[in-house]
Amino acid sequence: MSIQEQYRKKAAELLSSGEVKLVIGYGAGTTPDRRRPLFVRSADETSKLHLDAACEANLSGYLVTEGLLADRKKVGIFLGPEGIRSVNILASESQLDPDQIVIMGFNREAESVSALEGSNVRDFPAMLAALKEQAPGAGEQALVERIENMTPEERFTFWQAEFEKCIKCYACRQVCPMCYCRRCIVDNNQPQWVQTSSHTLGNFEWNLVRAFHLSGRCVECGGCDRACPVNIPLRLINRRMAMEVLDAYDHFSGMSPDQETVLASFKKDDPETFIL
Amino acid sequence: MNEQFEPKIVAFVCTYCTYAGADLAGTSRLKYPPNVRIVRLPCTGRISPMFILKALQKGADGVLVSGCHPGDCHFTSGNFHARRRWTVFRALLNFTGIPLDRIRFSWISAAEGVKFAELISSLTDDIRKLGPFEQYKAMIHETETPVSL
Amino acid sequence: MAKIGVFICHCGENIAARIDCARLLSAMDDHPGVSVSLDYKYFCSDPGQENVKKAIRENNLTGIVVAACSPRMHEATFRKACAEAGLNPYLCEIANIREQCSWVHSDREKATEKAIDITRSLIEKVKRNNELQPIEVPVTRKALVIGGGIAGIQAALDIANAGQEVVLVEREPSLGGHMAQLSETFPTLDCSQCIMTPRMVEAAQHPKIELLTYSEIEQVDGFIGNFTVKIRKKARYVDMKTCTGCGDCIQKCPQKKISDEFDCNLGKRPAIYTPFAQAVPNIPVIDKENCTYFKNGKCRVCAKACPIDCINFEMQDEFVDIEVGAIVVATGFQIQNTAMYGEYGYGKYPDVITGLQFERLASASGPTAGKIMRPSDGKEPETVVFIQCAGSRDPSKGVKYCSKICCMYTSKHAMLYAHKVHGGKAHVFYMDIRAAGKGYDEFTRRAIEEDEASYLRGRVSKVWQENGKLMVRGVDTLLGKPVEIAADMVVLATAITPQPDAKEFAKVIGIGCDEYGFYNEAHLKLRPVETATAGIYLAGACQSPKDIPDSVAQASACASKVIGLFSRDRLEREPVIAMNNEATCSGCWGCFVACPYGAIEKKDILNRSGELIKRVAFVNPGLCQGCGTCVTFCRSNSIDLAGFTEKQIFAEVMGL
Amino acid sequence: MIQILLRDKLDDCITRWHAAGYDVIGPQKNNNVTRFAPVEKASELDLEIILTDRTVKELFFPQTEPMFRYRIGKQAIDTEEYLPPGRKRIIFGSRPCDASAMAIDDPLFGWDFKDTYWFQRRNETVMVTIACTESDDFCMCTSLKLAPDSPLGSDIMLRPVAGGKGWHVELLSERGREAFDRIEALLDDSAAEKEPIANVPKRFDLDVCREWLADPENFESHFWKEISIRCIGCGTCTFLCPTCHCFDFQDEGDTYSGIRRKNWDSCSFALFTMHTSGHNPRSTQSSRWRQRIMHKFNYFPGKFSMNSCSGCGRCSRQCPVDMGITETLQEITKTAK
Predict the structure, then answer these.
(1) Cβ pair D236:A229 closer than 8 A
(2) Chain B residues touching A242 at Cβ < 8 A
(3) C589 inside 8 A of chain A by CB
(4) Would A175 disulfide with which of A227, C2, D312, D319, CB 3.0-4.6 Å?
(5) Does the beta-carbon distance from B81 to C633 stay under 8 Å?
(6) Same domain, C425 and C556
(7) Residue B137: closest C-alpha in chain A
(8) C273 and C296 assigned to the same domain
């Protein structure tokens, strides 16, 4: 049985047994190569669920939709490894109760998907440990290194050309499971730390603050990068930040629901090479 | 350039150590260049990366962030938190092309008036050599320019 | 609409010499929102402050900026002036144009420009200041004194005699500390035990003092007036309530070969013991490490010997939480191990001893009952060499500082030696004789002139053993000649160092320490007994090396601080604390994790029918110290810090 | 007489237009995004793109535009106005949907106060539109009763000739004629087959939809919640929409001086309708999506007799969660029937 069939069946069982009130998965999109988030509430709709290599989106952000989990009922969700990591972070930041989440985990390969064993977010320590070792986003490594090898002036020029394109649609923020703030800092106008105008300076400030707020929290699902309508390579900044917290603090985000937020904690012997 | 370029430097310091160190530089009548403007905060823990961005927006050519030595924080651990933030934010600035020569961090205790004066002197000197932060200023200039199309 | 007053102080010539105050004044005059700007020679003077108050009243000012010296000097002065003129004191900002401008710059033009920037940015800040009201917190009228040496005992007695309750905690089995180890004390040569033990007994019997010996501080939470302290009462294995201190158990203990710490390892003690005969409380403890029963499960001789059955091997450490309003830290010192001076042979030659060991030899209650004897063979030494600064004032191997008491006790040792060993010859190698203190110089002169100690100004380069003698090679710099002395005993004036765990303990109680581990006072000259943490005070050698008179004086000073604090029911605290916007808080608890004071609490927001809508952060105003770490962490800008709000800092930076 | 603009004459055209004082702006692919930007040479143009990622809207209504500079003095506030550049320009190679969208927005920007920034640019611009011979799965102009060669909003319509050698030129306005006078000598009159325009299928029934939307009964329909459940509330659809025109004012600067700017805003954002009190009349994403649809197909036509949509399909094409106007109107069509 294909994993798609397997999970359709599982979703149907979960829904008909009443174990979950909702399954968040993927459905067919407008075009054959597209998949869209799908919310399934009854067993007979589960045939609309799709699961294949085109299922790229990290659906975990929908879990923190206001009020969704307030009734203490469970929700089933299709999640890749990044999604599992985001649920861990959301749990560690008290945004959800991980025991309300029934995971139908999958691993995406080039052309196909395979199932991940487990259904609670605590069931995947080995997979996450392996992930930490192989450093996801390594595909971007070469590009990141290319940028790092530039002079500061060149890097500045590179990012200016990218940020100049930004139209401040905030798709990067809205699509990100970690951007759950009730009020984003950019929407605080007393004071207006981040300029809301989408001139290069405002865009630069916004993208820096976004990356900083995601440092040590980003799971590199690539959602922001895919959502960006003007194709700013946001994944590169996130990758660089992930490298930083891994190197400096051995922090790989989303390892467990009890993980400490890296920027809210410290060690007395944290490295410091640059402080005069 | 005929006239020597005088950089604008903004320093964000904690009141218990570096601010007191700067006071000590004063009571010791040490001399340092007048390019620095000090913003006093209770603790390095209070110094947000946003302050650095705003200082740059305000036209700073260099920024100094300074507080108590590790272990000496009046609030016990504000500077440890600050250190993590700086490490990460610094990496981010570096990756996006803000030269790190312009954004400096230091531990200066209340007793280190000499260190304060010397650091401000060397920082001013370094940034004078780097010249104005033209790339950032160009970005600021764009915000003041009418739309070209 | 803001109505700001700007007051530019000339500070005599201190500011006016380097800053064009007229130009600064006119620039401030033109600044939007400034209603009045004045300059004056000394605004901190009475007439100066009257001018400020008058301007506030006459112009109905909504905030003031005083451009003058550092806020660390006169912020309090001007805040008070505001309050007296009816303006909330937190609507006052100080532009530091002296310490951070006129005193450090010589270019008048540039200094003036800088002063303008500093002042105007604070005008922009003060426009956004809010009225703040001091926070009142209750005071628990009970003090904790940590350390049962002379400093701790003195502080405890002084506080208790003022009618306030005290908990006195000592980690050793008995009160006494180092002073109990001493033989006689300079400059009067009265017996240490004789003056110390009555104090110990008084402390133990005082109705206002609760004595906890053999106990350690595990954790300190809270803040001035409201500390919660967790104390570990280590298991003594002897029931304190029933033990009469008869000492039968001590006599019968078969294990008698344990080095006696109190005697600086010059004597032996059993596994069940009291540190010394006059111990308070006079109740033994079992040294678990060395007890045969604890090691092998067999013995229990002491239990059999006890006539009232108060030995209990099952006893466990006990934890108690106490609430106190103030803490006096009197944790004392240690002496430095002198092993780093291989050339002095300490540890290698048994007759090279420390000053503290000499105290035990000279003490009537010591291992030799006060007879000066060589540890190696028990012979009376005919020649003794005292080496001062064996660790102190030596940045390369020892410590940089002067240990302060060694000059005096070495003189005393030379004197005691002369009194006890007739015909004995004492040689003292010294760097300088530091004998400042009442009767101190006279005392050292007596050692030299009456007791004929030979004082040699110079260092010792080597000590070695030859024909049963300790050969001491040094130099007499006054004669400019090398000296070699065949001695029977060498006494090292070792450096005074903090307790080995002083740095860790500083973190437990939340105070600062210097590079060595001596605790930091809030101000070396003006607040020498307070720490930077309100409500915690320092007494004795934990702050720096001190002799007995200094320790006692500081302890009494601590007591007066504590009594002062306890003279009020409630205490006013600075309202510079964090506050949370519950509407925008997402409850991610980053602030909760980051707060160094545990001041963030979780608060449930309920709807009208009592259902939980969300959980947000709540800042406990009693615990918050106002560091602002939470503010910087908060991604949504929900938490803010009164006095240094996001709006204020933004305006200050954007107003530069 | 049929006039043909040959592709290999484009360079000469640009030179002549420049000489005549026109800026020439056309679609380009630059740094991974397709948008309109000034060109010096024909080779910089990318005329094969069906539709650019970003619309021509930003050439009339920039994403951020400084309006005036202010300086707060002790007694008064000085201001200094910014105005659009005031240069004649030719936008070469826009698509009919984009060009129509500009005409759709004209009444909006002029019904009471005439927006200088918009109209000055509109008056200075010659829209040279290329009719579409190709479309993709998201194009929906025909459903909006427009077409791949709609003349609305265009000054000149170019219709590709078979083989891609050039375009039939159709002059639609005086402004267009004036611009083409400058290059008349370069035009060819050889007859060539026009390539057929793209066949864009009709994706929903607009009349049915509008009727359903106009029915007050449907305002509170559960339909809105269902259709927008996956909406994440970003501004992609509105900012990439050629007709969306909402803006916000922002004062930016330090505490002494600054610039008042006119910035794009989006009804997708929760902040769009947030009151100072904290109350938000459109507190859910479904109410915001409903507003967007209602505005485009109910309120706007009610006021200006035009739909506020030209069928470019960018909202669906670029939506991070594969939503869009097409799906919503398709579902309404189904529901209504």
Answers:
(1) yes
(2) none
(3) yes
(4) A227
(5) yes
(6) no
(7) A201
(8) yes
Residue B5: what pLDDT? Answer: 93
CA distances from D214 to B97, C469, C493 (A): 53, 115, 99
Nearest CA in chain D to A183: D271
One domain, residues C108 and C212:
no
Q: What are the tokens at D265?
A: 């805003």
Residue D253 in this model has a pLDDT that exceeds 80: yes
Question: What interface predicted TM-score (ipTM) does this complex get?
Answer: 0.94
Residues C417 and C540 both lie in one domain: no
Q: Is 0.90 surpassed by the pTM of this model?
A: no
A165 interaction partners in chain D (CB closer than 8 Å):
31, 33
| Main-chain dihedrals φ then ψ at residue C65, nearest 5 degrees | -125, 125
Chain D nearest CA to A204, separation (Å): 14
Report phi then psi at A165, rounded to 5: -75, -25
Measured between beta carbons, the chain A residues lying within 8 angstroms of C635 are 181, 185, 213
- Residue C555's domain is classified under what CATH number? 3.50.50.60
- C452 and C358 in a single domain? The answer is yes
What subunits make at least 3 CB pairs under 8 angstroms with A?
A: B, C, D
All domains of chain B in start order, with CATH: 9-143 (3.40.50)
Last residue of one domain, picked from the residues C530, C565, C600: C565
Residues from chain B contacting residue A268 (CB–CB below 8 Å): 70-71, 80
| Closest residue by Cα to residue C247 from C229, C272, C227, C266 | C272
Mean pLDDT confidence for D262-274: 95
What stretch of H or E contains D260?
A: strand D257-264
Do residue D255 and residue C31 have CB atoms under 8 angstroms apart? no
Q: How far is CA C625 from the centre of its chain?
A: 20
pLDDT at C168: 98
Q: Band of the pLDDT at B111, cuts 50, 70, 90?
A: confident
Confidence at residue B1, expressed as pLDDT on a 0 to 100 scale = 46
**Residues in chain B within 8 Å Cβ distance of D254:** 58
Q: Which two tokens stand for residue A66?
A: 């206001």
What is the tens place of the pLDDT at every residue in C425-438?
999 999 999 999 99
Residue C479 and residue C359 share a domain: yes
Domain boundary among C478, C497, C516: C497
- Outline where C375-509 has alpha helix (H): 406-420, 440-449, 502-509
In a domain, residue C402? The reply is yes
Provide the token pair at C144: 């904790």
Residue C524 has pLDDT above 60, yes or no: yes
| B17 CB within 8 Å of a chain C CB | no
CB contact under 8 A, B147 and D25: no
Determine the average pLDDT of the residues in C438-465. 95
Contact B25 C104 (CB under 8 A): yes
Same domain, C214 and C259: no
> Same domain, yes or no, for C386 and C452?
yes
Starting at the edge strand that comes first in sequence, how are the strands of the sheet with C469-476 ordered?
A: C460-466, C469-476, C481-487
How many domains would you assign to chain C? 5
How many C-beta atoms surround the C-beta of residue A110 within 10 A? Answer: 5
Domain boundaries, chain A: 3-127, 138-264
Segment C192-214, tens digit of pLDDT: 988 999 999 999 999 999 999 99
Does the residue C573 lie in any domain?
Answer: no
Work out the average pLDDT over D254-273. 95
pLDDT band at A142 (very low <50, low <70, confident <90, very high): confident
With respect to residue C310, please indicate whether it lies within any of the assigned structural domains. no
Q: How many helices (H) and strands (E) does chain C have?
A: 17, 34
Both tokens of D332, joined, read 């309404």
How far, in Å, CA of C477 to CA of C467, rounded? 27
Residue of C365 and C473 predicted with greater confidence: C473
Q: How far apart, in whole angstroms, are the C-alpha atoms of residue D271 and residue D248? A: 11
The CATH number for C625's domain is 3.30.70.20
pLDDT band at A276 (very low <50, low <70, confident <90, very high): confident
Per the structure, the complete domain to which residue C603 belongs is given by 578-654
- C464 domain residue, yes or no: yes
Give the model's confidence band at D1: pLDDT under 50 very low, under 70 low, under 90 confident, else very high: low
Please answer yes or no on whether C124 and D278 come within 8 Å at the CB atom.
no
